Amino acid sequence: MTDNSAATEVVTDLAAEAAPEAPLLVAPADGTPEVICTSERLDEAIAALAAGSGSLAVDAERAHGFRYTQRAYLLQLRRAGAGTHLIDPTAFDGTPALARLGETLADTEWIIHAASQDLPCLHEVGMTPTRLFDTELAARLLDYPRVALGTMLEELLGVRLLKEHSAADWSTRPLPAEWLTYAALDVELLIELRDILADQLVAAGKDEWAAEEFAALAAGASTVAEPRTDPWRRTSGIHRVRTRRGLAYVAELWHVRDEIARDSDRAPSKILPDVAIAELAAIDRPDRTAIYRIAGFQRRQARRYLPDWLAGLERVATLGDAALPPMHIPSPGPPQPRLWAAKDPLAAKRLTRVREVLTDLATEHRLPAENLLTPDYVRRLAWSPPDPLTADAVDAALAELGARPWQRRLTVPGLTAALIDD
């Protein structure tokens, strides 16, 4: 028999030496504020926040996976001297009230964790910052391996956050008290977290990099993304559909579902799952009988719209071949890298060299390679380098794609050398 007593003693000692679990933050220091849903109380909040000092912590809760839109259903704001304010934006629909709040605080630095997620819904209600500090992006530039808000607060401030309501349906009214506490805690320590990360950025010599990144986020805060071409082609399971008519069924059912979801303000997946659309479209001649055999169409929400699904099938069945969508549409960018070796061996070799350069630079400067340079920029540059191939031309090409000055300063020399074909 093997004697494991020594190993057991080592494990026990290590466990004893391990740091105790960080305390759980269960309530804001000043208590959970009531939700603001009247003009009078909003005026009071605007005045209080305007009289506060320093940066403004901002968060927004959406109902992703429950509602069709990505609108905000709760806003959380906190500022030194003003405390925390929870605002129900739906109470001010059709009014300029929140735009006035945004204008009052526009020139203040806004602290947002993962700003790209919240900026669109904030802009939708009239709140667009001119300056911001993204704590998640700052953590990425500092090469933290995990950058979720709860993880950062635990590591840098020694507290844990409640996270069980992160995927809740925030369109629920009235909002449960425990949800409001969770929401208030999301901004409780955001200012303190920002200050620690700002000091670390300075110490690492990355504060100018972060400033450029934050400025670009703020500049794009009011930009509305262009709709995708043929968004139905992203339907999960579409790879099972092998014919153009099958794709037409996917497109038709996707659009029928989208219209139903938009009119009822429900997430499309709550009406009918993607896999059900793909499964039906993969059948040679889908009909009512086929619908009855597919589990996704037997959900209560899907059954309500049986006439709509059948009408969609009939419309596609009558389409001539010329009206059917192509199996593939040309990509505006380079092909997938796995195809490069066959399509353009020189480009494939360039991509390998370029990636090696960026990996080495990312390691040297201790940050993720994707933050050093956006992967799409890398692929476009390697697929179609500028001609003539000079450092200035590479710099200009990256600038046109959207690379920040700090990224270009670090990468252009190495990229230029790597792009030269043997």
Automatic annotation (TrEMBL):
Gene3D superfamilies given in the database record:
HRDC domain (1.10.150.80), Ribonuclease H-like superfamily/Ribonuclease H (3.30.420.10)
Q: Which PANTHER family match?
A: RIBONUCLEASE D (PTHR47649)
Domain HRDC, first and last residues per copy: 243-323
Can you say what this protein is called?
Ribonuclease D
InterPro entries (UniProt xref): 3'-5'_exonuclease_dom, Exo_C, HRDC-like_sf, HRDC_dom, HRDC_dom_sf, RNase_D-like, RNaseH-like_sf, RNaseH_sf
